[in-house]
Amino acid sequence: MPPNDPRLRLNHPSGIVMSFIAEATEPDVQRAPAPAAGSVQKHRYYWNHIGDLKRELGTALPREELRDLHRAAAWKHFLVVGRHLALVMACGWALWQSQYVWLWPIAAIVQGFNILGFLILVHEAVHQCIFEKKRPFWERLLGRLYAFPTGIAFSQFERWHLDHHNELGHDHDDPKRAHLSPKKNSRLVKLLYATPALFVIYMRASREEAKTYPLQVQKTIARERLLNLALHLALAGSILYFAGGWVLLRVWVIPVFFVFPPVFVLNRLGQHYDIDPTDPAKWTTLVHGNPIWHFLFLWSNFHIEHHYYQRVPFYNLTKLNRKLRPFYEERGLQNRTYREMVWGWLVDNKEAHTDWHA
Question: What distances in angstroms separate CA 95 from CA 3, 32, 102, 176, one per listed residue?
Answer without folding.
Answer: 50, 44, 10, 33
